[in-house]
Amino acid sequence: YGKNTIKFLRLHKEGKKQFVKEVEVCAHLRLTSPQEYLEGNNCLVIPTDTIKNIVLVLAKKNGIPSLEQFAIDICNHFMTTFCQVAYVKAYVQEVPWQRLHEDGVPHIHSFICVPDGIRFCEAEQCRNGPLLVFAGIKDLKLMKTTQSGFEGFYKNEHTTLPERHDRILCGELFCKWSYGECKDFDFNCIWKKIRECILEAFAGPPDCGEYSPSYQKTVNCIQMHVLSRVSQVQVIEVVLNNTFYNVVDMKNLGLTNDKEVLVPVEAPYGSCACTLGRKKFFEA
């Protein structure tokens, strides 16, 4: 049980310059005894309102140096403070505020919300067990207008999809990775590096791109690129929800439409998902 959707803004000041971190937190506990379920005995139950207040107090006292560290702080607090807690899981998600710039100069106290992917993390711990940390990015919308196709697929009497060697590749990406046991990582730096890897693998070189024969291959390229560049990542999950675009037939309007005007296919849409990890992690 626990408290969901604990939303708050943490403001931090350094002289005249101000910093913001707006987050949404879910904190869940499992107690050593299920007596509140079986017997209606609430003597071990930490009220969810108390859980909410603890999260807010930790934000006030510790700040939020990174989402991962804040999730770790939540886990550590419940494990060290309450002997009746057998398991704790903290999920933290960030609102994507970015500092405004005017003529290249960063503003000291103004920000803009930019929907270029939402950062999140999870930390979980069992009593007498390791602290595990996960992080990720979701709602990241990506598109490339060429260098993508889909050919040579299995066909039978139900197949109506034509082969395409040049199409738009567009989708909404969810990516979650595991660090394994928690170590003293620079979580902010690692998250930014992984985001860069995702964009590099999706797009390819800026002057020519890279051909994608399928959404599945693109998902795998993203995973392989992250694992090859970021040694701290042990397992990475990627889900790519696809958005398809159809070329508008303008023949009745007396026009030739050479893939210049397209409309998105709202539903149904495709989805590709894969989890990839280092061999040593799975062997362990």
UniProtKB/TrEMBL annotation:
Enzyme class, top EC level, equals: oxidoreductase
Q: Which domain of life is it from?
A: Eukaryota
Instruction: Provide the binding site for 5-hydroxyisourate.
Output: T48, D49, F150, R167, Q216, N242
Entry's EC annotation: 1.7.3.3
**Pathway it belongs to?**
Purine metabolism; urate degradation; (S)-allantoin from urate: step 1/3
Give the residues the record marks as binding urate.
T48, D49, F150, R167, Q216, N242
BP term (GO), one: urate catabolic process
A Pfam family recorded for this sequence: Uricase
Which Gene3D superfamilies does this entry report, sorted A to Z?
Answer: Urate Oxidase
- Give the UniProt keywords, A-Z: Oxidoreductase, Peroxisome, Purine metabolism
Q: Give the reaction(s) catalysed.
A: urate + O2 + H2O = 5-hydroxyisourate + H2O2
Q: Where in the cell is it found?
A: Peroxisome
Give the record's GO CC terms.
peroxisome
Q: Name one GO molecular function term.
A: urate oxidase activity
Which residues are O2-binding?
A: T48, N242
Q: Which family does it belong to?
A: Belongs to the uricase family.
Which PANTHER family does this UniProt record tie to the protein?
Answer: URICASE (PTHR42874:SF1)
What function is annotated for this protein? Catalyzes the oxidation of uric acid to 5-hydroxyisourate, which is further processed to form (S)-allantoin.
Family annotation (NCBIfam families): urate_oxi (TIGR03383)
Name of the molecule in the record = Uricase
Q: What organism is recorded for this protein?
A: Malurus elegans (Red-winged fairywren)
Whichever gene encodes this chain, its name is Uox
